[in-house]
Design brief:
Blueprint lengths: L3 E8 L5 H4 L4 E9 L2 E9 L2 H10 L2 H7 L2
């Protein structure tokens, strides 16, 4: 597994009153690995939670979550 750097996360859709009530919402996480920018979608409580989850994912799991 190559080093992953430059993590950034944001919600995948705008917040609404309904999504504000949900414990987890879709987030887009982008990062760099082996000179390639990767974007994945993860269900998380907040952007920092999404980044933590992305850091722990295996390469195989990342391949399944790519957008």
């Amino acid at each position: 597994m190559a080093d992953r750097t430059g993590f950034h996360a944001c919600v995948a859709q705008p917040n609404t009153p309904e999504t504000d009530l949900q414990p987890r919402v879709p987030h887009l996480v982008t990062f760099w690995t082996a000179g390639e920018e990767i974007a994945i979608r993860i269900m998380a409580e907040a952007p920092d939670d999404a980044i933590d989850k992305a850091r722990r994912m295996t390469d195989e799991a990342i391949a399944r979550h790519r957008v």
